[in-house]
Amino acid sequence: MQHRRKKYSTVFHEETEKDVLFARARKISAQLSQKAMADQGNGAREKGKKRTEHSTIAQGGDQKGLPRKRFYRARAHSNPLSDSHFPVPNNPCECDWKEHFPAFFKDATGEVENGSCATENMKAENRSSENGAIVPSSQAEKLEPKVRFADVGCGFGGLLVKLSVLFPDKLMVGMELRDKVSEYVKERIHALRVKHPGQYENISCLRTNAMKYLPNYFEKGQLEKMFFLFPDPHFKEKNHRRRIISQTLLAEYAYIMAIGGIIYTITDVEELGEWMKSNLDAHPLFEPVSEDELDQDRCVELLSSATEEGQKVARNSGETFRAIYRRIESGA
Amino acid sequence: MEDHGASLGAGVGDMMAPALISVHPDGSCVVVAIGAGLRIFDLLRNEQVVVSDETVPARHGEAIRAISFNDKGNFFSSAGDDKLVKLWNTESWSCIKTIRLPKKVTSVAFSKDSKWVLFADKFGAVYTLPTAVKEEKDEPAQLLAHCCSIITDLEVTSEGKYIVTSDRDFKIRVSVFPADPLKGAPEIWSYCLGHTSFVTCTAFVGSQTSGQQLLVSGSGDSTVRLWDYKTGKMLHVFDTNELEAVRDDKTVDCAARAVIGLSVSPDGSIVAVLLERFTGVLLLEYDDLGKRLKHLQSIILSEHVVPTSLAFDVASRLWIVAGAAESIELGDQLVTPEEAAAAEARAQMTAKMAVAHVRLIVRCSGAVGQDAEKAAHYELSEKESMLGGEALLSTLEGGRADSGEVAVAAEAAEQAMRKLMSKRQYTLQERENRKRFRNDKKFERNEV
């Protein structure tokens, strides 16, 4: 029964046409108990509200004011190699971070008079790039805050929420391929911002494929920290190319990371742990971070405790394997 | 899933491979690759070159997709859908190496010191192989990889420091050429991002000696863009749709034409551009001071034929080929060597039968009047007075070609390219249908 209910809650979010919804609801009502049906009805109603009226949800619906994960269940895996059909910015200057971090960009324009102007200039240049030459303004770069941390495959966003409090002045973004899960993280962040005014303004979530589009979002040397927590293990050898850590992808991570930036990986699968470690070891632009430094690092303990996946492993008292490396300058 | 796959299945267009042309760096010979066959004409001796190949397998079994000479001209490489890379010695025209790769090859290039041959495949990986002949068997080493995106072009910058790869996902990547290519190229120097469709080809403009070369790229968004590849900065966008010659071309379809070929004159000042469904060549002039591209001339071919490939030679003559050959897919079904041999023979036969048009555009030195601007002027060479004459045409064209036939073949090849490069768009209906076959929905279907 439990299993079945999960399935139906997924269905509810995927079908949009009303009659399909009603047909399903009728079928369910015939099959499920009264209590279960009440649950489903709740789900369907909540879904309708969710997108439009954040504040109502924040007050009612759920006591905590946070979106409920059960209504955002998605398949555990998504094919990272398939063609994507979501919009992706053409290059980093086309990313609209203002939308993601309104508080930060408001500050920038409020404090510095030129700030807004420089931003406008950049926008104008982008427009002109359609039919003419562009001249990037270095001024705008200085004034506009930039995303410095990226959590690749952020899942339900547990790490982002914890990190937000630890580093309140760093912008950080979670990247998630599964639409519904990224939707959940966005709702969660929104609810947190409403509930704790002034906090959680520095985190956001993107629905994107990090394997394909990282350079579309970040410039060379932009990121200070990258997190890869409990990635999909892809056991079959045929599927190893789908693993998020590989020689070729590390080249891309090295490109978007600042010299001295740190890459954090953790997994509960021993085989994958060894794979990530050996790949990082083999890459000439990364070196392991010493144990002493790890003890000082506030992020390290969050790796296994902050995320939902990490908590699950801890509950089952499973073992975790981490590999933490620093981006170094090229020797050549 | 099977039924869905079938609906997308291979039409005739999928199996057409465009003819390619390449000219020896000293201008001594011209190579046309059509289907699985290579047609080589020696301009000095004025005769056809017969190649010798003692490697295994001795001939290409499927369409050749990439050909290239190295800068010195002592090596030539051909590769294609049969997943073979062949390296030729151009003095004796004998094959010195044949390597089989796991995936179909899309592009070939040489390092500037000619010690390495680089090739890119449909899986997004770039491999390298030393050109020197050794006793032991060579294994290609992987240099870099784009994440599961077809690499459309591969170039090495003139100073030899960077590898430029362009892909179907709108990206141009500039990687540092490694000190030891056998250990891979792990360092990415920059990305040139800005194209709004697949990138098809790249080349370099500006004088080689100045060390100030810039990158030009052509794309499915019908623009040619100019880049500073060291910073990834886009300097100029030239939209071919704005040209009258392109708009007025008689073909009915007005949809954006993809740029399908680029070649830069040896002095780095003229960029010749081929467009999809456009029966001519655009010549753009590169303005070194303003860092811009401007339209110089449009040359329309007399036959109503869309060129498929082009190449400048050392004397600034522009060689153009139009045509395509049917590419016979061997797939992975072949089991016996006899079958493979039969398929290869068939491919060679098709290639031999395939016809192409070869044309030459020459620079006219005679300035018209006093007008300095008219000084640089290009003209289509008459068939009768063409360099190499009748012998060249019969070697490279492979028979008296009816222009209708060539036009149809070339068009099919273009369609095949577009189909391969563009993302498939599904309607909402199709998506819904597809969901029904997902594993996690089966349970529900059975219940109904």
From TrEMBL, chain A:
In residue numbers, the region (Disordered) covers 33-65
This entry's Gene Ontology molecular function terms read: tRNA (guanine(46)-N7)-methyltransferase activity; tRNA binding
- Locate the residues binding S-adenosyl-L-methionine: 153, 176-177, 209-210, 229, 307-309
A GO CC term attached to the entry:
nucleus
Known pathway: tRNA modification; N(7)-methylguanine-tRNA biosynthesis
Q: What InterPro entries does the database record attribute to this sequence?
A: SAM-dependent_MTases_sf, Trm8_euk, tRNA_(Gua-N-7)_MeTrfase_Trmb
Q: What is its main location?
A: nucleus
Q: Does the keyword RNA-binding apply?
A: yes
Question: Where are its TM segments located?
Answer: 244-266
Q: Of which family is this protein a member? A: Belongs to the class I-like SAM-binding methyltransferase superfamily. TrmB family.
Q: What is this protein called?
A: tRNA (guanine-N(7)-)-methyltransferase
Look up and give the organism this protein is from: Riccia fluitans
UniProtKB/TrEMBL annotation, chain B:
User: Per the record, GO CC terms?
Assistant: nucleus
**Which biological pathway?**
tRNA modification; N(7)-methylguanine-tRNA biosynthesis
A Pfam short name: WD40
Compartments where located: Nucleus
Q: Does the keyword Cell inner membrane apply?
A: no
Q: Which InterPro entries does this entry report, sorted A to Z?
A: Trm82, WD40/YVTN_repeat-like_dom_sf, WD40_repeat_dom_sf, WD40_rpt
WD repeats span: 57-98, 192-237
Protein family (similarity comment): Belongs to the WD repeat TRM82 family.
Q: Function, please?
A: Required for the formation of N(7)-methylguanine at position 46 (m7G46) in tRNA. In the complex, it is required to stabilize and induce conformational changes of the catalytic subunit.
Q: Tell me how this protein assembles.
A: Forms a heterodimer with the catalytic subunit.
Name of the molecule in the record:
tRNA (guanine-N(7)-)-methyltransferase non-catalytic subunit
